[in-house]
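Q: Hi! First time doing this. I have a protein sequence and I read that you can turn it into a structure. Is that right? Here it is:
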Amino acid sequence: MISVTDLRSGDFFELDGQPFLVLKYTHAALGRKKARVKLQVRNLKTSAVLSKTFLGNKKLNEVKLEKNKLVFLYFDGKEYHFQDPDNNEEFEIEKQIMGKKGTFLKKKDKVDALFWNQSFISIELPITVNLKVIEADPGIKGNTSANIYKFAKFENGLRMKVPLFVKAGDIIKIDTRNGEYVERMIKN
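A: Yes, that's right. Below is the predicted 3D structure, encoded as structure tokens:
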């Protein structure tokens, strides 16, 4: 059992037989009333994002998640397909459950897969990924006085805003938590 006051963003717990991931944690103590903990959570089975409020003394079940390395194979438009390199077993996860995580994957990426009660429920991405730019809009000369961005297309099909100096062939580091440009790793 874990106290709700010990939970933080990124922690897991089980409630009503379902596994949850804490997205946001807020502790509120109002006058003489008992402290309340407000959580924004994601159900790991359905991917639904919910708000939950608990009294500060509430205890929750700890979720027992297993991690295993899987290799990303492909996306068929509906599901992301992964393979366990040890036993060649294949796993699929639906697009809506995967959410934005799928946009950062490229073929043969190794990811940490999360299993709950022997069923595959999600993946954990590294904090940053490196992707190669295959197309970039041209920068406009003289437009460097402010933080101006342009669109670029990456090797995995992702399109996002990058600084003006980024060109096709550059390798860019992207933060998977917010989908933003971090830095240019290799200049073309």
